[in-house]
Specification:
two-stranded antiparallel sheet, 4-stranded parallel beta sheet
């Protein structure tokens, strides 16, 4: 199976549910993402931590995660939502509402608690082998949902 990555960026004026769902649809249309029914799809939001003062500027907004879940649910996909903050991931996901969202649409996966497998890359100049959660090899698609930001707030 050939693997490829596609990226779409679409402007969305705010986090209003309907606007977000329209932006999600447009993103997936742009990259021609139309998963087959029963596909296993891992959503990977950016869960850095809990920062009440600047939360919208730091982590993937719940409305975006929800919009992607709605898109996938309409297509009868199995939805998994996972990430690793390296510390307190479960706590962060619960406090941010991601755990509740994952339970509504599918399953929460805390990468810190998952079995790891080695991935080797002989073409790399520096890092020849890394470990990643095994479950990432067991899904059909990974939808990376970064939060575009600077790291100086």
């Amino acid at each position: 199976m050939e693997k490829s990555s596609k990226v779409a960026v679409v402007e969305c004026k705010d986090y209003e549910e309907k606007r977000v769902e329209e932006a999600v649809e447009k993103c997936f249309d742009l990259i021609e993402f139309n998963p087959e029914e029963k596909s296993r799809v891992m959503l990977n939001p950016n869960v850095v931590g809990v920062y009440p003062k600047n939360q919208e500027a730091i982590t993937t907004h719940l409305s975006v995660i929800r919009g992607v879940c709605e898109f996938l649910q309409k297509r009868n996909c199995e939805i998994l939502i996972g990430d690793s903050s390296f510390i307190s991931t479960s706590e962060f996901m619960e406090k941010l509402g991601i755990k509740e969202l994952a339970e509504k649409y599918g399953k929460l996966v805390v990468f810190d608690s998952e079995e790891l497998v080695d991935v080797e890359d002989d073409t790399s100049e520096f890092i020849k082998k890394v470990q990643i959660p095994k479950i990432l090899h067991e899904v059909d698609y990974i939808v990376n949902m970064p939060k575009l930001k600077t790291h100086v707030l």
